[in-house]
Write a structure and sequence with these properties.
It is found in: Membrane. GO terms for molecular function: polysaccharide binding. Keywords: Signal. It is a single-pass membrane protein. The protein has one domain (about 1-210). It is about 15% helix and about 30% strand. It has helices spanning about 1-20, 135-140, 205-210, and strands at about 20-25, 30, 50, 55, 65-70, 75-80, 85, 90, 95-100, 105, 110-115, 155, 165-170, 175-180, 195-200. It is elongated, with a radius of gyration of 20 Å. The structure holds 2-acetamido-2-deoxy-beta-D-glucopyranose (NAG) (3 copies). One 2-acetamido-2-deoxy-beta-D-glucopyranose binds near residues 86, 117, 151, 172 and 175.
């Protein structure tokens, strides 16, 4: 009895899911549960389709372009903010990337984050701020990083020991950042996959397992 009910629920859920996937935005599919309007997807997973460009809205109100989505692993990749003259990220005035604590989205553990133009106090942190840190390659080899050349920079893997809801920049701290998804130590710098990978908690997770 219980098993049958559970199966019917699952079939029903996947049926509803299929019905409620949102239409394509530009060239990107918008898989369930991501939601670009109130008639499709799950409203808890709100993203935005602005003029054919799929975007993620941070808690501070900054729109980050969504570059790719992998619904099978509940992940999407957003484009890091551009780094402007004087080595400042375009979201600097908002303090960088911030997600709501109660958002189903969080920053995944596969991002290597690089911080630029940091103040000396960063040296007290466990980040890799040595002269052979990968952030030096970004400053020296990538045009976008050239405004940050010769500033104090640091890199770190955004793993589970660090908050998964924020990448912080500020005047007097570090003023710019970028991120590379799944950076392999031996990979040439021109093959880096720039992005900030976010993951989402699957919908109805509690619902399925508590057996409502
Ligand atoms: C919308 O996108 C088109 C094509 O990319 C572009 O030409 C146009 O300027 C954009 N409009 C706005 C309001 O951003
Ligand atoms: C910093 O990163 C570089 C390049 O990956 C590595 O060779 C070096 O050992 C790291 N240093 C520290 C202190 O972790
Ligand atoms: C670095 O940060 C300081 C403030 O912390 C800022 O005044 C300066 O414009 C930034 N950029 C460079 C290239 O120093």
């Amino acid at each position: 009895m219980v098993v049958t009910f559970f199966h019917i629920s699952l079939i029903f859920l996947s049926f509803v899911s299929a019905l409620e996937a949102c239409p394509k935005c530009g060239s990107l599919d918008v898989p369930y549960p991501l939601s670009t309007n109130e008639n499709c997807g799950d409203p808890k997973y709100k993203i935005y389709c602005n003029n054919g460009s799929l975007e993620f809205l941070s808690a501070k109100g900054y729109y980050y372009k969504i570059l790719s989505i992998d619904p099978g692993s509940y992940k999407l990749i957003i484009r890091p903010p551009s780094i402007q003259n004087l080595c400042q990220s375009s979201d600097l005035s908002l303090g960088g990337l911030l997600l709501n604590d109660n958002s189903p989205f969080s920053i995944s553990t596969r991002n290597t984050v690089m911080l630029f133009n940091c103040s000396d106090t960063i040296l007290l942190s466990p980040l890799n701020c040595s002269s052979n840190s990968v952030c030096k390659l970004f400053e020296d080899k990538i045009v976008e990083g050239s405004g940050c050349r010769n500033t104090l920079c640091c890199s770190f893997l955004k793993d589970a020991s660090i908050t998964s809801h924020r990448i912080r920049v500020r005047m007097g701290g570090c003023t710019a950042y970028t991120s590379v998804v799944e950076l392999r130590p031996d990979a040439p710098f021109d093959s880096w996959n720039y992005g900030i990978e976010l993951q989402w908690a699957p919908p109805n997770h509690d619902f399925n397992f508590r057996g409502h």
